[in-house]
Amino acid sequence: MAWQKVCPLEEIPLLGARVVAHEDGAIAVFRADGDTVFALRDACPHKGGPLSQGIVHGSGESARVTCPLHGWNVDLDSGHACAPDEGCVERYATKVEHAVVWLEV
Ligand code: FES
């Protein structure tokens, strides 16, 4: 695992995401309210929908993304689908330093 520079924070739309290419599949880097940043594999635990195209809501530990395909909510901090749905998607560590976003992959 190593820290990879993603982009300046301002280049990720607020309540949106940016996709980072990775050899194991795309990773979605989300920017939630309060400029908290999260990263998940860009594949919904339901049927693989692009979470990066979903709407981000909530903040901090309650930040979630709603999948654009069938509306599942996925917890951005844990990668778990919110009840009553079940499943989870791989999560990655992120950090913001001097307004630059980093991803641990
Ligand atoms: S693929 Fe995401 S809710 Fe169905």
Automatic annotation (TrEMBL):
Domain of life from the UniProt record: Bacteria
Keyword Iron-sulfur recorded: yes
Keyword Iron-sulfur: yes
Domain Rieske: 4-103
Keywords: 2Fe-2S, Iron, Iron-sulfur, Metal-binding, Nitrate assimilation, Oxidoreductase
CDD domains the record matches: Rieske_NirD_small_Bacillus (cd03530)
Any Pfam family hit: Rieske_2
Listed name of the protein: Nitrite reductase small subunit NirD
Organism of derivation: Thauera sedimentorum
